[in-house]
């Protein structure tokens, strides 16, 4: 098996820098759009293990990625809690039920993530079988704070006013909600690992909207609880955990102290400075601006070379975008990106 991705996360020597891409199975690929159309809706695609496996494999047929990532959505957990997830065309995710009061938190049902989200684990098992050891499979979840924002806002938001209002006015209820979600995420990721995930990533998409004290109390604390929970459940240390807080560069040291194996960086954080700050404590993943994939091939190649140069020699780097690829990118530009990572990192 090509295990350079797992080796890099564990800071072991690799022959070249591994690369994968957030949202690598997505709308920029015409074959993905065709499969989504076949599924009928995005949610139906997520809940169909056969089609979820198909779209997970699609980018690996085109590109020499060093890892596959499960095709799913971070909002499966709120959906399992009965929030009624649905997707509006062009509007993104929405919930039929929202949390607006402490009583709403207290009335959340007791739910088995292992039972309610069985379609996810079926997809993981099918993908592992289909991969046949070619590359490792990444499982994932949203962070408790990020999931809570959607459950309170009822969808995406520009300013997260309702979620922040709830946090500041009802801190005890917010901690109760985040605790429930941390337990759910721990169970969810454990079940993904049992089904065959070989690394897991926690997407803290909205941690960066918080003040430094609020980030530590309401986001990072619960991610650390998940990392510790996975270890307590006997998950082997060879199943690395990646924490990714968008706009979280100011908290790198604190994130690295959670016990995670790797920290994801967005494009606003200097990778050379990040490596100097965390030393050998964790691996680093990132961090090219996804918008550079709209540029000419020579610009893409130069930026890949710069990031590799800034990270410097030695293990512990997984090349990735600083956030997910956007739908309008030319698939040929992704080929340039992946080839450049392998070419220039081998030459180092």
Helix and strand arrangement:
Layout: H1 4-9, H2 30-39, H3 42-46, H4 49-62, E1 68-69, H5 76-80, E2 85-88, E3 92-95, H6 102-106, H7 113-116, H8 118-131, E4 137-142, H9 144-153, H10 161-169, H11 171-195, E5 199-204, H12 212-232, E6 241-245, H13 252-256, E7 262-264, H14 271-278, E8 283-288, H15 297-311, E9 317-321, H16 331-347
Parallel strand pairs: 1-4, 4-5, 5-6, 6-7, 7-8, 8-9
Antiparallel strand pairs: 2-3
Helix pairs in contact: 2-4, 4-8, 8-11, 9-10, 9-11, 10-11, 11-12, 15-16
3D architecture notes:
- Helix content is 50%, strand content 12%.
- It has 348 residues and is of the alpha/beta class.
- The two termini are 23 Å apart.
- Strands 1-4-5-6-7-8-9 form a seven-stranded parallel sheet. A two-stranded antiparallel ribbon has the order 2-3.
- The chain is built from 16 helices and nine strands.
- α4 packs parallel to α8 (118-131), α9 (144-153) crosses α11 (171-195) and α11 runs parallel beside α12 (212-232).
- The mean pLDDT is 95.
- It has one domain: Alpha-Beta Barrel (TIM Barrel).
- The chain has helices at 4-9, 30-39, 42-46, 49-62, 76-80, 102-106, 113-116, 118-131, 144-153, 161-169, 171-195, 212-232, 252-256, 271-278, 297-311, 331-347, and strands at residues 68-69, 85-88, 92-95, 137-142, 199-204, 241-245, 262-264, 283-288, 317-321.
Summarize the structure.
The chain has a single domain, classed as TIM Barrel. 50% of the residues lie in helices and 12% in strands. The chain has helices at 4-9, 30-39, 42-46, 49-62, 76-80, 102-106, 113-116, 118-131, 144-153, 161-169, 171-195, 212-232, 252-256, 271-278, 297-311, 331-347, and strands at 68-69, 85-88, 92-95, 137-142, 199-204, 241-245, 262-264, 283-288, 317-321.
């Amino acid at each position: 098996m090509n295990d350079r991705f797992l080796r890099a996360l564990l800071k072991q020597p690799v022959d070249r820098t591994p690369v994968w891409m957030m949202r690598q199975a997505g709308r920029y690929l015409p074959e993905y759009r065709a499969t989504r159309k076949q599924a009928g809706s995005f949610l139906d695609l997520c809940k169909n293990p056969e089609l979820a496996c198909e779209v997970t494999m699609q980018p690996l047929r085109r590109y020499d990625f060093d890892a596959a990532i499960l095709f799913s959505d971070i909002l499966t957990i709120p959906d399992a809690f009965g929030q009624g997830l649905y997707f509006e065309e062009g509007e993104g995710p929405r919930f039929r039920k929202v949390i607006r009061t402490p009583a709403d938190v207290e009335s959340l049902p007791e739910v088995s993530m292992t039972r309610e989200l069985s379609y996810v684990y079926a997809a993981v098992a099918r993908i592992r079988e289909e991969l046949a050891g070619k590359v490792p499979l990444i499982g994932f979840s949203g962070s408790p704070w990020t999931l809570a924002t959607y459950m309170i806002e009822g969808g995406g938001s520009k300013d997260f006013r309702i979620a922040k209002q709830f946090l500041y006015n009802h801190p005890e209820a917010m901690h109760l909600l985040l605790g429930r979600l941390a337990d759910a995420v721990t169970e969810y990721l454990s079940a993904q690992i049992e089904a065959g995930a070989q690394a897991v990533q926690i997407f803290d998409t909205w941690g960066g909207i918080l003040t430094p004290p609020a980030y530590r109390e309401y986001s990072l604390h619960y991610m650390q609880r998940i990392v510790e929970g996975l270890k307590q459940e006997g998950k082997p240390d060879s199943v690395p955990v990646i924490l990714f807080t968008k706009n979280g560069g100011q908290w790198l040291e604190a994130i690295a102290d959670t016990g995670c194996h790797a920290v994801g960086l967005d494009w606003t954080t200097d990778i050379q400075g990040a490596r100097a700050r965390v030393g050998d404590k964790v691996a680093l993943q990132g961090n090219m601006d996804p918008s550079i994939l709209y540029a000419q091939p020579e610009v893409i190649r130069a930026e890949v070379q710069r990031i590799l140069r800034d990270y410097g020699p030695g293990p512990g780097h997984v090349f990735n975008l600083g956030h997910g690829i956007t739908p309008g990118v030319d698939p040929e530009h992704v080929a340039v990106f992946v080839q450049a990572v392998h070419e220039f990192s081998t030459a180092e």
